[in-house]
Amino acid sequence: MNLAQLNQEYGLGGQVTFVEGKGGFPCVEVANDQATALISLYGGQVLAFKPKDVAHDLMFVSENAYYQAGKAIKGGAPICWPWFGPDPESQDRPNHGFVRNRLWQVKSTQTLPSDATQVILGISYDNDTRELWPYEFELSIEISVGRVLELMLVSRNLSDRPFTITQALHTYFTVGDITKTQVLGLDGTTYIDKVDNQQVKPQTGPVLISSEVDRIYQNVPSELTIQDDALNRQVRITSTGNQTAVVWNPWTEVSAKSGDLTDDAYQNFICVETTNAAADVVTVPAQGEYRLTAIYDLLS
């Protein structure tokens, strides 16, 4: 569908408008009495979310992000699926799966009883995906834009045999100063340290960032908090369907080497990802489904 067709079929009286985004990718602009948001159909990816009474966007998007077919957009809430991280079968397939660099389809738009706006996007198997992953599937992201932002990733197995997945809502959160940022709620858990030879380590106290951090936290609670002292706010993350969470910040060296990050980008974001990663592998039965949910609430 072109933009005119999308607006005719799925536009909602000023609340939902389809526009051309960067790189020519179609995007959904959402504006209601509670919040605004920007959603890219490329990648099925939320790029911006801001409640009406909040000064700074929840999401971080890199100034150098690629908006090119075949490349992932660095920022917002990329979707990693059906695997998180490197190809689990070492077949030279792309990192983080194959849905974050494809166009998704609009399934529905509606105003919810809470007056939040819901946009559902979907992607399903085709000949290209069969070459990468030999299963019949339907994946949808249910996005609710209101006082809070809710993301529900629904994996449906249309095959006659089970399949296994790892996955992530790989969300980039804006922070005022990474050195004045803490992640709360992980005290007493253990994590796999991807910066230090996959060693398993205990977490004591809040997570503080003073160097490159890339960690898979295990057996995590359902609620985590980003304490952002520079912007004088908290982000509460409530999740279901996951036992793991990833905390990532590239720090100086990785930022400088990344073509889609500015050298100082690391100062203003942190990824706290709702994941099924490492040993947190999900089996989706034949004709079954699995739901991974994250709710983001900005607290001033």
Brief overview:
The chain contains three helices and 23 strands. Helices cover 7% and strands 43% of the residues. The strands form four sheets. A nine-stranded antiparallel beta sheet has the order 6-7-8-9-23-19-18-13-16, with no helix packed on it.
How do the strands and helices of this protein lay out in sequence?
Layout: H1 3-10, E1 16-20, E2 26-31, E3 35-40, E4 45-51, E5 79-80, E6 105-111, E7 117-124, H2 127-132, E8 137-145, E9 149-157, E10 163-165, E11 167-169, E12 172-174, E13 181-184, E14 190-193, E15 199-202, E16 207-208, E17 213-218, E18 223-228, E19 233-240, E20 244-249, H3 251-257, E21 269-276, E22 282-284, E23 289-299
Antiparallel strand pairs: 1-2, 2-3, 3-4, 5-11, 6-7, 7-8, 8-9, 9-23, 10-22, 11-21, 12-21, 13-16, 13-18, 14-15, 14-17, 17-20, 18-19, 19-23, 20-21
Task: Provide tags for this entry.
single chain; mainly beta; Beta-galactosidase, Chain A, domain 5; eight-stranded antiparallel sheet; nine-stranded antiparallel sheet; 43% strand; 300 residues
